[in-house]
Amino acid sequence: MRKFCLKSNVCKSLIIKSIRVIFCATWLLGTGPVYGNEKLDSLTKALNLHSAKDTTRVRILEKITFIERFKDINKALKYAKEGLQISDSLNYTFGQVFCLNHIGSCYLAKGQYKNAIEEYTKVVRRKVDINDQVSIRGLTLAINNIGMVYFELKDVNQANYFFKKALLIDERINNQKGIAREMGNIGKVKLELNEFDSALYFLETSAAIDREIGNEFGEIESIVDIALVYYKKGDYQLAEKILIDLQKVKSLECVVAGIWIDQLLGRIKYRQNDVQAAIFIKKSVGKFKKSQITFHFQSQR
User: What's the predicted TM-score (pTM) here?
Assistant: First the structure.
């Protein structure tokens, strides 16, 4: 596996500079575009025009499911189940493994952890062809997602076990997106354990890989987690600067990320004794659904 950006003091400035270069639009909580509306409308129109129960419909359903997971979990679950039903009838591997992962992630977001693990386990139990990259990527995603369930349950040791297991496979097949995902999630574990230097290593590596492969979604999440590291270390000024720079993002994924960003900004303002600003931010965030705020992004990217 390639090594990325290992020195934290260098990464601090590189991360902030790269955000300014990559992201130039402004996103303001409550005044920006509704999350995913344009893309969702386009996909919904395509779905309505394509009634054939084939792989094309499955692909559209899978994309809609991903967006709806951040808007309406029940709708997302409905679309994922339809995608799985069609995929099973066609023996379509892509649809089967990724719709199962989506269904599990919907249950995870709803707090139905037993159901989530059951869906992820269905992927793990499938026979995997070592030459089938789709099957293997779906497998490592499911293993990672089981780790996310344990992370939600505060069993960080078990979570770390599954993240490392998924990472080992993704490294063997050189799945950079998966490597970044699992490195980011291991960083979350290290952060939970207050192992800050180790957390920064994993999170900075995750962000660097995602930046290189163009995965904006994963990069942003890891950078937000990096801000959380500095918050927990008591460096509120640096944490705030990272988050404010991230608020300049305008993209599908970042609207949901923006809710989490503002949550952390509110905590920072409170720590800085700016109670009025903290209350204002808390009220702004409060208008969003709880599932949008608490959902852990890297259960599926």
Answer: 0.79
